[in-house]
Amino acid sequence: MQQILNGITNSAIYSILGIVILLIAYLIVEKITPENSWKEIVENKNIALAIVFAGFIIGMAMIISAALHG
């Protein structure tokens, strides 16, 4: 039972850590891009930019998960 609780705790900690790192990476990219990407995607319906950011998020998530997994 103790191993199961340790596994659940570790999974929760690594999940939260991964999400925080992903959000920080997104905020950094948001700051270095010339325009507000969220506004451009939502208000101006820029599909190309949405696809680029989706690729960025998937790529960063894969890198973070590999780094956290070891």
Automatic annotation (TrEMBL):
It is a multi-pass membrane protein. The chain crosses the membrane at residues 12-29, 49-68. InterPro entries: DUF350. Keywords: Cell membrane, Membrane, Transmembrane, Transmembrane helix. It is found in: Cell membrane. The keyword Cell inner membrane does not apply. Belongs to the UPF0719 family. PANTHER family: UPF0719 INNER MEMBRANE PROTEIN YJFL. This is DUF350 domain-containing protein. The lineage of its organism: Bacteria, Pseudomonadati, Bacteroidota, Flavobacteriia, Flavobacteriales.
